Amino acid sequence: YCTFGPVMLLGDSAVGKTCVLVRFKDGAFLGGNFIATVGIDFRNKVVDVDNLKVKLQIWDTAGQERFRSVTHAYYRDAQALLLLYDITSKPSFDNIRAWLTEIHDYAQKDVVIMLLGNKSDMAAERVVKTEEGEKLAKEYGVPFMETSAKTGVNVELAFHAIAKELKHRATQQPNEPKFQIHDYIESQKHKSGCCGLM
Ligand SMILES: Nc1nc2c(ncn2[C@@H]2O[C@H](COP(=O)(O)OP(=O)(O)OP(=O)(O)O)[C@@H](O)[C@H]2O)c(=O)[nH]1
Q: Where does the signal sequence lie (predicted)?
């Protein structure tokens, strides 16, 4: 396999980074007791991108403040960043700007960034509107979608869109049209969480 990544998961503690990754990797939901990530976790998944099998390297980071200096050290190696907030937590959304500042300070200039509003299944507890997420993403020029690690909605799409972008960056021919990640996501959004995305 050729290897793409690393793709790094970022965002406040408890927004669902580990659960989103487990949903993508194993197709299951980690309900029950919340176990905070310590430092950083490394996982790989083989995905199909345009009929090419690629190994996607994924780094799950701890959202807790006390691990920040550990995770900072990994930013510069990341090819892509999935930045998560929790639609039921206003502070996690308000902190996205601070996360983007950290990304600006520590990550590579051309890193692929995607904003994810997670826990979209928790409609009754929602405090961040979809439009607020869209507006913030637009301001920073990054793609956006709402995900649920519980139902799986848009989880595969997020990783596949990133994998496709990284594959195009790695193999782009000069005469080939550039991959448009925004257009790809818009065309695939809200389709079921599995199958046939590529
Ligand atoms: N309903 C619902 N609960 C979720 C979802 N994603 C995560 N959770 C729950 O939210 C809690 C935190 O999830 P984690 O994935 O451990 O959070 P994290 O962002 O990795 O946290 P840190 O490791 O501290 O950075 C857990 O209790 C999960 O079961 C989701 O999409 N829907």
A: none
